[in-house]
TrEMBL record:
Locations listed in the record: Mitochondrion
Annotated region described as Disordered, given as residue ranges: 55-166
Domain named Prokaryotic-type class I peptide chain release factors: residues: 42-141
InterPro entries: Mito_Transl_Release_Factor, Pep_chain_release_fac_I, Pep_chain_release_fac_I_sf
Residue stretches of biased makeup (Acidic residues): 143-154
Protein name (record): Prokaryotic-type class I peptide chain release factors domain-containing protein
Species of the source: Alectoria fallacina
Length: 166
């Protein structure tokens, strides 16, 4: 039987780790991903690959090594250059993903995966801002209630009442 310490007190057994540790997670992202279309798969023979020397921030290492990747999709003529990391293999993966997204966006337009993801993000942002407006609306309402209406002379009634008390 395995033991571990939750604190400096006595050790507890690991019979059921879920009982000892409450895990909070949501399946919301999984559900959203289920509605997205599958990613476009490109044929390797349709892609021309070139490795270029990088530029920009990163210093001598970026400028000397050929870690930047340039991909050209021959049938469409679409070109992508990726220099996201210092690793050539990671840049190859990133460039392929970007090229597939760009081609899919050109073919499908608003029905493409990237357009659907952007629509989901904009809906979430709109929902957040609506929630914030609702929250602050009640605070603004309280502030408005504190300010009384003006009488015939144009001065707030609340201020007149204060002056009369003095």
């Amino acid at each position: 039987m395995l033991f571990f310490r939750t604190s400096r007190s006595s050790p507890k057994s690991i019979k059921s780790p879920l009982r000892l540790v409450k895990r909070h997670f949501t399946l919301r992202n999984v559900a959203a991903a289920a509605h997205l279309p599958p990613r476009l798969v490109l044929k390797e023979e349709d892609i021309e690959e070139a490795f270029l020397k990088g530029s920009g921030p990163g210093g001598q290492k970026i400028n000397k090594t050929s870690s930047a990747v340039q991909l050209k999709h021959v049938p469409t003529g679409t070109t992508i250059k990726s220099q996201a990391t210092r690793s050539r293999s990671q840049n190859r993966k990133i460039a392929r993903r970007l090229l597939a997204e760009k081609i899919e966006a050109a073919e499908k337009g608003p029905d493409s995966r990237t357009a659907l993801i952007a629509a989901i993000k904009s809906k979430k942002k709109a929902s957040k801002s609506k929630k914030a407006r609702r929250k602050h609306k009640s605070q603004d309402k309280r502030e408005d209630e504190e300010e009384e209406f003006e009488d015939d002379s144009g001065e707030p009634v609340k201020e007149q009442a204060k002056e009369e008390r003095v």
